[in-house]
Amino acid sequence: MSTYINSLNWRYATKKFDATKKVSNKDLDTILEAASLTPTSYGLQPFKIIVIENPEIREKLKPFAWGQSQITEASHLIAIVNFTTFGDELIDDYLANIGATRGIPTEGLKGYADFMKSKLTPLSDDQKAIWTAKQTYIALGNILSAAAELKIDTCPMEGFDANEFNNILGLTDKNLNTSVLISIGYRAEEDQTQHYKKVRKSKEKLIQYI
């Protein structure tokens, strides 16, 4: 655990990446596997993860992220996109996956399916979009932590025009929305942010026992 805490202390929101250094396919796969293992509400994973490697697409996106250099200079750009709406199919697909993975008949899961549908299907589209967007941030945390363990730098990013990103990435007609971005790669030597002391609330102020 001390190694894990050391990794979290090591990481920071990298502002300038070394564009000449690339994350290996093996390390990228490890980070993406960590994302896929993210716990989500009911286990439904109501989002997709898009790895944006194409430099032309990233150049198109950059102006709509306020020109931030991380968009184009990082080794990879990851977008976690949430479902803006869904129906019973989200739950039915999940139950089918449970049945196939665990080798059990889905008929025995009908009660669980009905319970999930009673809680989620009646939600408005706005409520569904808010709920699915919240799930993306759990995956974000796993990506940041996994990358830190590999000594790969990251920068979580909310500063972008989601509507423009959706248009460029072809998400609008697919009921998907760009929720959060993560640039990953290796810090540039001239990135002064790496030398700043990490500022966090003290545990006494942050944590309460009752």
Automatic annotation (TrEMBL):
State a single Gene Ontology molecular function: oxidoreductase activity
Q: Which UniProt keywords apply?
A: NADP, Oxidoreductase
UniProt keyword annotation of NADP present: yes
The Nitroreductase domain, residue ranges: 9-186
Spell out the family assignment given in the record's similarity comment: Belongs to the nitroreductase family.
Q: Which PANTHER family match?
A: NAD(P)H NITROREDUCTASE YDGI-RELATED, NADH DEHYDROGENASE_NAD(P)H NITROREDUCTASE XCC3605-RELATED
What's the protein called, per UniProt?
Nitroreductase
The root-end lineage is: Bacteria, Pseudomonadati, Bacteroidota, Flavobacteriia, Flavobacteriales
